[in-house]
Amino acid sequence: MSKVCAVSGRGPLTGNKRSHSMRATRCKWNVNLQKVRLVVDGKPQTVRVSARALRTLKKQGAI
Predict the structure, then answer these.
(1) What is the pLDDT of residue 21?
(2) Would 3 be classed as within a structural domain?
(3) Measured between alpha carbons, how far is 29 from 47 in angstroms, rounded to an integer?
(4) What is the pTM of this model?
(5) Is residue 6 one of the residues assigned to a domain?
(6) Where is this region: Disordered (predicted)?
(7) Exposed, middle or buried, 44 (CB in 10 Å: 0-12/13-18/19+)?
(8) 2 part of a folded domain
(9) Quick one: pLDDT at residue 61?
(10) pLDDT tier at 62 (50, 70, 90 boundaries)?
């Protein structure tokens, strides 16, 4: 299963971890995905939504 938000399309970010001596090692930060039941096209479906998008949906009253 891909680590992409179904609502916002956010995916994992990549970059460098930096140690105290500033050595760079490649690192990947995944999205905080949560399983939520949403009404899509009139039917309830379980979708994987990022925590940030879930917070926004709750603020807008969609959930």
Answers:
(1) 98
(2) no
(3) 21
(4) 0.79
(5) no
(6) 1-21
(7) exposed
(8) no
(9) 84
(10) confident
Separation of alpha carbons 43 and 2, rounded Å: 23
On whether residue 4 sits in a domain, the answer given is no
Specify the number of domains making up the chain: 1
- Domain extent, residue 22, equals 13-60
CA atoms of 45 and 24, how far apart (whole Å): 42
pLDDT for 63 equals 77
HEC assignment per residue over the chain: CCCCCCCCCCCCEEEEEECCCCCEEEEEECCCEEEEEEEECCEEEEEEEEHHHHHHHHHHCCC
